[in-house]
Amino acid sequence: MDDSATEHAHPWFAAVYDPVTAWVERLVFRRHRAYLTENLSGPVLDIGSGTGAMFSHYGDKLESGATTVHAVEPDPHMLEQAREKATESDVDIELQRAAAESLPFADDTFDTVIGALVFCTIGDAEQALSEIHRVLSPDGEFRFFEHVRDTGWRQSVQTALNPVWKRAVGGCNLVRDTQRLFASGPEFEVAECQQFRDGLVPVNPFIRGVLCPTNVG
């Protein structure tokens, strides 16, 4: 296994992720994941698919033939669970091991890229955003749902916990300013962005929305 593969391998975190997050998936995340798949059509890329939490939301779109779905995940332990989940759910999703910073697809391949709770763990977030722009069609959409850096005393708590949290939770960065990253880059414009306080300190607040590619050529 090369250095990159080792960096992305978190067997313990992969093993506990689904049982630990089951309640919040059911009570909170489900409606946000449903938002990400509204009116999907054409080819879709799911980046950082983890254990496959998004897969059930693609089912009716795949069955109707409205879309096709590819998914990438760098952690081999997460990817194994995602493959099992796709098989159990009987959804036809093309899965492969890859990081968001280096997507194994040609330019302008996808009409929609979906990122759900993934930018907190990406090593080079700006490079990943550039790769998403590259593989999106010019009139495509990047749809996202992420937890982001808080403000005030809550941010202080996040900052204090972050070193230990990153080691324990698969590299999750509590203080990444993902909202600013999405709003400030030259490759995308914000079509929609909403903030929600659906979690508890330190994983709060959340943002969801849509970025549309700009012509940077």
From TrEMBL:
Domain Methyltransferase type: 45-143
BP term (GO), one: methylation
One GO MF term: methyltransferase activity
Keyword line: Methyltransferase, Transferase
InterPro entries according to UniProt: Methyltransf_11 (IPR013216), SAM-dependent_MTases_sf (IPR029063), Thiol_S-MT (IPR052356)
Entries under CDD domains matching the protein: AdoMet_MTases
Protein name: Class I SAM-dependent methyltransferase
Species, as recorded: Haloarcula saliterrae
